[in-house]
Amino acid sequence: MKLYKKVLLTLSGAGMLTACTSDTSYQGIVIEKKESHIFLDANNDGLADQMFQGLQYGSVHRAMYKYIIPGDTVVWKPGNAWNGPYHPDDIKTVNGLTKKEIFRLVEMRQAHNGKIR
Questions:
Q1: What is the pLDDT of residues 51-103, one digit of tens each?
Q2: What is the rounded distance in angstroms from the CA atom of residue 30 to the CA atom of residue 37?
């Protein structure tokens, strides 16, 4: 019985440690968009610090590109070695909206009046 309690306490402690990991998200303001690229200012100096490219591939990424305008806030997670450091899949939110919400919003607004914003 003592072994069971030790194992249970150890596993629950490990679960609590993994739940307390910090969020490693970055945030930037869109300063320009052109040719399926968006350029972000991450430190408020007015110069481009990050660039996301490839927003022409896939319907969700195209909808995000149509939705995003200069002045929007983009939150992203660090990239990986497979996709590269700044892949559109790494974008978490734009102005607090997820990729799925943006896709639905763009689809609905284009069907209604042809305008996204």
A1: 988 888 888 889 999 999 999 999 998 877 666 667 778 899 999 999 999 99
A2: 10
Q: Compute the distance between CA of residue 111 and CA of residue 54 in angstroms, rounded to an integer.
A: 25
Compute CA distances 79 → 18, 26, 84, 85, 91, whole Å.
Answer: 20, 11, 6, 4, 9
CB atoms within 10 A of CB 65: 19
Name residue 80's beta-bridge partners.
Answer: 84
- Nearest Cα to Cα of residue 63 among 86, 84, 85, 94: 94
How many angstroms separate the CA atoms of 59 and 9, rounded? 47
Torsion angle of the four alpha carbons 28, 41, 104, 100, in this order, in degrees rounded to the nearest 10: -50
Pairing of strands 73-76, 50-52: unpaired
